[in-house]
What we know:
Blueprint: E1 31-32, E2 43-44, E3 48-60, E4 68-73, E5 81-85, E6 89-96, E7 105-107, E8 127-134, E9 140-145, H1 152-157, E10 162-167, H2 169-173, E11 184-192, H3 202-205, E12 215-218, E13 224-228, E14 232-239, E15 246-250, E16 256-261, E17 264-272, E18 275-277, E19 282-288, E20 297-302, E21 305-312, H4 335-339, E22 343-351, E23 354-357, E24 369-371, E25 376-384, E26 393-397, E27 403-407, E28 422-425, E29 430-436, E30 441-447, H5 450-454, E31 458-463
Parallel strand pairs: 1-13, 3-6, 5-10, 11-14, 13-21, 22-25, 24-31
Antiparallel strand pairs: 2-3, 3-4, 6-8, 7-9, 9-10, 11-12, 14-19, 15-18, 15-20, 16-17, 16-19, 20-21, 22-23, 25-29, 26-28, 26-30, 27-29, 30-31
This protein binds CU-O-CU linkage (C2O) and copper (II) ion (CU) (2 copies).
One copper (II) ion binds next to loops.
Keywords: Membrane, Metal-binding, Oxidoreductase, Transmembrane, Transmembrane helix
Family: Belongs to the multicopper oxidase family.
Protein name: Copper oxidase
Amino acid sequence: FFSMGNNHSMRQSMHGDNQPKLQKTSLANEDPLRIPPLLEPTHETKESVTYDVRTQMGETQIKKGEKTKTLGYNGHLLGPVIKIKKGQDVTIKTENTLNKNTSFHWHGLKTDDNADGSPHQLVAPNSSETISFKADQEASTLWFHPHPEGETASQVYQGLAGLMYVEDENSDNLSLPDIYGKDDIPLIVQDRYFDSNNQIDYEKSYRSDGTQGDTLMINGTINPYLDVTTRWMRYRLVNGSNATNFTFSLDGQVPFYQVASDGGFLNKATEKEELILSPGERAEILVDTTKSLDEDKLNLLVDDKIALKMNLKPDKKSKSIDITQKLNRIPDINKNDTQKLPRQTIDLKGMSHMVNINGEIFDMNKINMTKKLNSKEVWEVNNISNMMGGMIHPFHVHGVQFRVLSRNGEEPPLNESGWKDTILVNPDEQVEILVSFDKKGIFMYHCHILEHEEYGMMGQLEVI
Length: 464
Ligand code: C2O
Ligand code: CU
Ligand code: CU
């Protein structure tokens, strides 16, 4: 019913033929890549930092002609980058100027549930809530998006998504491209349908197995180009789509190096020719532009189509990077220890509106499992297909960063050996993850196909 072998297809399901095909990039309509602004703190000391983050309605010139009605944080579309430092006390005043409830979820953040922004922490229209937490995790690229029950998918689709960078001593000391907007650039990758009036209409684009699109946007830019002046580029890739898996590569199969996964740096860079990210996943990659087959250009491809055109204008003096440097100190996993841990089965089942986890569908008033603070468990995440076939489910847990122990009984690949908060699980696969419950409260775990999550492919665990 479906083919598992070819990971280029954006998703496997019996409806595979209905997949929107990404449009061929037309070279006529290039725009400079939008770079999200860095958010200015309202107050900062070494120990603390304060930010204001506000949802708003806006209008954005995404295509030629009519502007697109969009949603954004502190702007018309998407959001700024919020930088926090490990150890800092962070205070964020969140404000909602939409005419609907929203919530501010910090995806990948390790915090007690009062700052998690789950469906329980709604911010009503024209009101604000202030959260605070201690930045208690290593340098990483996190992101934030709304999470109100029933409205997550539509609000993200209309433009609500932003980035949070955690920095620490290690990231300060590593020799990596780190000049924001120059050689260190986030790429929020999303697919959208635009109607004939250039509007993103969630209701019309909606599909129960996940709302996709035929037009690729990076940071809200269609057909973006970027003038590259340094030899090495660092891209922080974020799959911010509702439901689409993206395969990243470079023109001519030029290799690149993955240096970080969802929750921080890998121990060392791992060379890749191709990288798949499912919705919610992040990766940081380094590109050595001298490897380009073309002297003056190099394209980043998504699903074999041009996604970002790099115009190479190298500054010969730009810094050289030691790609073999040690990036992190993630401990090896001791198999004997993990064998003794309690196990929890997570069965991901179904398609379209018939989805569930362990046979249960989401209920705001139901705690599906209870865990002890500071305990550890092995979760066996199974993607159970049925006669109709199956599809990839990206499995995400709030408030934790976990480790992958195995994928179908085999050691995970190097780029899945670091910290993860979202993991792609193929049909019929079993992925074992090691989860530590270090934060208190009620946390969601769910499929990050946002429409599946809305249909109840989500549960709640309480850490006490
Ligand atoms: Cu990215 Cu529960 O979310
Ligand atoms: Cu999350
Ligand atoms: Cu799913």
